[in-house]
Specification:
By secondary structure, the protein is α/β, with parallel strands linked by helices. The chain has one domain (2-229): Nucleoside phosphorylase domain (Rossmann fold), CATH 3.40.50.1580. 37% of the residues lie in helices and 30% in strands. It contains six helices and ten strands; from the N terminus they run βαβββαβββαβαβαβα. The chain has helices at residues 10-17, 52-64, 123-136, 155-165, 174-183, 202-229, and strands spanning 2-7, 22-28, 31-38, 41-47, 70-79, 89-97, 119-120, 140-147, 169-171, 188-196. The protein has a five-stranded mixed β-barrel, surrounded by six helices. Strand 3 (31-38) and strand 4 form a beta hairpin. The longest helix is centred in the C-terminal third of the chain and has 28 residues, at 202-229. The radius of gyration is 16 Å and the shape is globular. The relative contact order is 0.22. It binds adenine (ADE). Adenine binds at residues 76-78, 151-153, 170-172, 195-196, 198, 202, 206.
C-alpha cells in the first residue's frame, strides 16, 4: 500500500520530509516527487505548486505514475467559519470549486460538468483523524472546504462563498484533488490548518502564519501515519 501525501507549497511538505526515515527525489513533469519510507509505510510526497491545475496534475501523477492507493493532503487555508482561528485544524467532509461557473446553462454555482457541486472525502480516513485528535486532545473541526484559483482577501467574496456553499474554509487545491481522486477511485483526505481569515489582512497573516500552520497540519498527518502503523 503506497500512500501519497501532498501539499501545495514547500512549507507544507518540508516538515513531513524531515520526519521520514529516508527518501529519494524523482523529477517528473517539471516537479519533484519524494519516494519516502516511514517505518513500514511506503509514501510518495510532493508539493504541487499553487492552484487547481497543478494540484490535479500532481494528484494524478502520484496515483497513475507512482501507484498511490490513498491520498492525504496537508496544508493551510483561509477561515470562513468565525469559530476557526489561526492554527486551528479543519478536515474537509466535502469540497467544492467556488470559481466554477456554468450558471448560464442552468446549473448551480460550482457544478462540475457530468458530476456534482460537492465531492465527499473518505469517511475511514476522517475517522482515523478523529481518533488521533481525541487521543491527543486536539480540537479538529470537520466542514466544507471551497477551492478556487484565487487568493481570497476580500470580505465580500468570502461572504459570497460562505452563503453559496455553506463553506467553513477556503483554499486553492483541495477540490481539484477531490475530483481526481473520485474519478480514479482513490480514497482521499484533505486537512488544513488556518493561516488567515480571507479578509483584508489575509495577505499579511498568510505570510506571517504559513510556516507555523503548515507544520501544525504536517504534524497531525504524521500522527495519522503513526496510527495507521499500529
Ligand atoms: N490558503 C490560505 N489562505 C487562503 C486564502 N485567503 N485564499 C485562498 N487560499 C488560501
Amino acid at each position: 500500500m503506497k500512500i501519497a501525501i501532498m501539499g501545495a507549497m514547500p512549507e507544507e511538505i518540508e516538515p513531513l520530509l524531515e520526519r521520514m526515515d529516508s527518501y529519494e527525489k524523482v523529477e517528473y513533469a517539471k516537479n519533484s516527487y519524494y519516494l519516502a519510507k516511514y517505518h513500514e509505510l511506503e509514501l510518495v510526497i510532493a508539493y504541487s505548486k499553487i492552484g487547481k491545475v497543478f494540484a490535479a496534475l500532481t494528484a494524478s501523477t502520484m496515483i497513475e505514475k507512482f501507484g498511490a492507493q490513498k491520498l492525504l493532503f496537508s496544508g493551510v487555508a483561509g477561515a470562513i467559519n468565525p469559530a476557526l482561528k489561526i492554527g486551528d485544524l479543519i478536515v474537509a467532509t466535502r469540497l467544492c470549486q467556488h470559481d466554477l461557473d456554468i450558471t448560464a446553462f442552468g446549473h448551480p454555482y460550482g457544478y462540475v460538468p457530468e458530476g456534482s457541486v460537492f465531492v465527499e472525502s473518505d469517511a475511514t480516513l476522517r475517522q482515523i483523524a478523529k481518533d488521533v485528535a481525541k487521543d491527543a486532545g486536539i480540537t479538529l473541526r470537520e466542514g466544507i472546504i471551497a477551492t478556487g484559483d484565487q487568493f481570497v482577501a476580500d470580505p465580500d467574496r468570502k461572504a459570497w462563498i460562505a452563503e453559496t456553499f455553506d463553506a467553513d474554509a477556503l483554499e486553492m487545491e483541495g477540490a481539484s484533488v477531490a475530483v481526481v481522486c473520485d474519478s480514479l477511485e482513490v480514497p482521499f483526505f484533505v486537512l488544513r490548518a488556518i493561516s488567515d481569515s480571507a479578509d483584508m489582512d489575509a495577505g499579511f497573516d498568510f505570510d506571517t502564519f504559513l510556516e507555523n500552520s503548515a507544520k501544525v497540519s504536517a504534524d497531525f498527518i504524521i500522527a495519522m501515519l503513526d496510527r495507521l502503523l499500529r
